[in-house]
Here is the input.
Amino acid sequence: MLRVFLIAAASFFFVGVHNLSADAVVFFNSAQVAQDVASGATSDTIKSNGYIFTYTRDKFFTGGVGLTEPVGRFVSVSWPTGVQAQAVTAGPVTGKARITLSREDGALFGITAFTAKLLANTFGTGAEIEVVPKLNGEEVLNDPIFLDASGSGNQSFNYSLTGGYRHDTSALHGYDSYEIGLFVDFAITALTLQGPPVVVPEPASLVALGMTGLILMGGRRGRKTPVAKGQRV
Here is the structure.
């Protein structure tokens, strides 16, 4: 039994990685846990199921409280309901609301489908969600991919492989990150990502266990069982 345990421990050490997900990952549900990764001046980053979400926040907005104590704006959609991006109206750098998707392992993947919920009116503006695919941090297309987003606050838009004109996601594959932007606040409330199984390092505790197993196995191999006088080996 001990030998079986040690072999299993050693295998953890040699493999060092494990699969976290199947080829398709569907967000969002209450069983999915999001882990905080970073908090910037105008953005936050979380990760779940091997995928990374970076989204803008209007943290320097004061709301009339005072210029010395920024309070930021209210967030109406939060995990696990979805991920919300805010247009940045105050701070060192202002700009549109953006959500950037990438993977922990840096592998290429695609956006099969997603639902965007408007959190402000865009009706009559010809509003478009701009999706910028990237490779190694660089834009690879001359122009963003434009998706229809002209409507009223709280209206949702669905995009998929069969979504049709300006609702089609078939071009959103084969890149390592995607920046999704709109000039007003919006949230992604449903999302399907397609890619190879996500692979991340095993926890350090398992690696340490594997090292211990190798040491013990090496020690056992180095010992010789005493042979009684006259006993055949």
Remarks:
- Confidence is low (pLDDT under 50) at residues 1-22, 205-217, 220-229.
- The CA atoms of residues 36 and 53 lie 10 Å apart.
- The first strand starts at residue 17 and ends at 19.
- Residues 204-221 form the longest helix (18 residues).
